[in-house]
Known about the structure:
six-stranded mixed sheet, three-stranded antiparallel sheet, 20 helices, 11 strands, 3 domains, Fic-like fold
Amino acid sequence: xxxxxxxxEVIIASSDPLTSSLIKKLKAEGKLLKIAPKVFTTNLxxxxxxxxxxxxxxxxxxxxxxxVISHRTAFEFKTTSEGSVYLTYKYTKKITLPxxxxxxxxxxxxxxxxxPFMGGLHISGExxxxxxxxxxxxxxxxxxxxxxxxxVEERLERKLRTGGEKSLNELRDKAxxxxxxxGMESENMKLDAIIGALxxxxxMNILTSPVAEARALGEPFDSRRLDLFMILMAALNSKxxxxxxxxNVSDAxxxxxxxxxxxxSNFIEGTEFELSxxxxxxxxxxxxxxxxxxxxxVLGTYYIVANKKEMSVxxxxxxxxxxxxxxxxxxxMSARPDIMPGTFKTQDNRAxxxxxxxxQQVRGTIKKGFEIYSAxxxxxxxxxxxxxxxxxxxxxxxxxxxxxRIMMNAELTAAGQSKIIxxxxxxxxxxxxxxxxxRKENPEPLIHAMERLRLFGSKLHGMNxxxxxxxxxxxxAFKDDxxxxxxx
Length: 488
């Protein structure tokens, strides 16, 4: 029995005489350490706080087997920033453990729909947790046992988005059935009103969350993406950027740059041509017979980026932004009717393990993004923002990378600034810095990379096709991105 006890990190005292005797013996031998009332550990090296955190729910299951993990803890399933955990029990009491405060709230024991957990513990079922988190929530210390109505609304909006109206109706029915059992009829009335507002069957004046309000109005948006847009905007507006005036002022020079712009933008997306073949397609405006759709991808991109008038158009309203995106996409992807040119996606898309904005939130996210874009000052900063926003939303079934780079360079052309080319050799770096912002909320690598590419692009002027090709070859622009770096 001693070996069995010593194999566990945490030992809980009990009324069993053998267990009590063994704990007393091991403690006297220095093999057990008491870290909280009735709680002992065999780990003599780590801190009590770490041990308690690591074994918290096991400890709770042993000490309070009839408790229900409830309120915000049922949703978050972790301690709050203040170290609090909330449970419903047979009495109201606050108990302090090393690094953690247990808040016991008198209330109903486990009911049908609550989940068994760690022996005798339960976790509030979904409907019960929603009702609990609509209670008035702040205690004497200013800590809240609930996530609050705003976050409840946001969770319900996500549930509606992923599970449809049926999921909210089922939740509402379950909440209605359990509310009298746990004494939460008033909270049920509030939940019913919120769900009704989200489904547009009841007034929306009860809603407090912008995300929920947008859903009720029919234009839901992705709040996490808006957080990323705000992070990028703040970083961009905190910097001073140089001006690089456009030196490819003649139509011929602008078109020459546009060819390479189109060539590389398609190459990055996997539409790969020999440079000579791509040049012939553009010069003759004739697609290769064997690769008709791919040829039109290059031509479609070129039609836009070589048109200085079109590339000088930037949005002044959110609706204009939506119209510009759809118009340019319709031109660029005109040879691919299967991906609905000019039409926003009607199902969710992803790249590897990267999930983009839900199709239902495209318009709302772009409109909200426009508000942030409008607060950016420098045209180069606007260009970076437009690139990232369009790429992050991924509003179309295909062609999103290309349209995001078109939108970026349109900001620069409209401001009389030199455009940006992203050569093949920089592909991995480019995609990597976009991911840095998406996954780690770090905008600096993206800004730094685009500054480097902008400097590279500013040097591409006053050359004919052969001169520009030769210069870019000397910079490794056409090289494999896993073996070379961009030099200039």
